Amino acid sequence: MKNPALVVLLLLSTALPVAAHHPGERLEEVMAEKELAFEPTDILRLPPLAMTEADGASLNLSDLSDRIVVLSLVPESCGAPCADQQALLQAVQEAVNVTPMREMVEFLTVSDASAHGPEWDAGNWRAITPTDDTVMDAAGAFAALSARETDAPMVHVFDQGGRHAGIFHGAGFGRINMILYINGLTNAPSP
């Protein structure tokens, strides 16, 4: 084509519908409308959680502030609700890991040392135990971040920078909705 302005105009006209559907700064609001199990939080001050990895190394959430963190707490007494949630999270991890998001997302499962779960991809998943508290105590402290009254297990999602961005409740949330939410966080500007 001889007119470069026309070419740019044609390219923009095809890109605008895509940009119009991206939630951008309204990510939490859009996800809350789409997914009933999602609760936006926007919390910077978190309960303390000192953790120990399977190899004995200590870990703090602040160590992972350059990544999106998907944190699940699995007390031994939780049973089937937590097992169902862990299976769903494993499916989320599998979908995330076939994309470039793999390098940006860390999945953490806080559980008793004896707890067993699905087969995770260890490249971006860690099994951890609380150093100072029981898993039940840690789950209670993080449950207090929610405005909802529920006994369902919660998945806490932190954005890059360590802000507690949202909670997915139970095991009935849409796998694709969590993947879309994580994708939205990976595309958000770093704080």
Description:
Keywords: Signal. This is Protein SCO1/2. It comes from Pseudorhodobacter antarcticus. With 191 residues, the chain is of the alpha+beta class. Helices cover 34% and strands 22% of the residues. The protein has one domain: 3-Layer(aba) Sandwich (Glutaredoxin). Strand 4, helix 3 and strand 5 form a beta-alpha-beta unit. Helix 2 packs antiparallel against helix 5 and helix 3 crosses helix 5. It is globular, with a radius of gyration of 19 Å. The N and C termini lie far apart (42 Å).
By CATH, the topology is: Glutaredoxin
Low confidence ranges: 4-21
Tell me what portion of residues adopts beta-strand conformation. Answer: 15-25%
The percent range for helix content is 25-40%
Average pLDDT metric: 86
InterPro entries: Thioredoxin-like_sf
Keywords: Signal
Organism: Pseudorhodobacter antarcticus
Protein name: Protein SCO1/2
What is the topological layout?
Layout: H1 4-21, H2 27-34, E1 38-43, E2 51-53, E3 58-59, E4 68-74, H3 80-96, E5 105-111, E6 125-130, H4 135-143, E7 154-158, E8 164-169, H5 175-187
Parallel strand pairs: 4-5, 5-6
Antiparallel strand pairs: 1-8, 2-3, 2-6, 4-7, 7-8
Helix pairs in contact: 2-5, 3-5
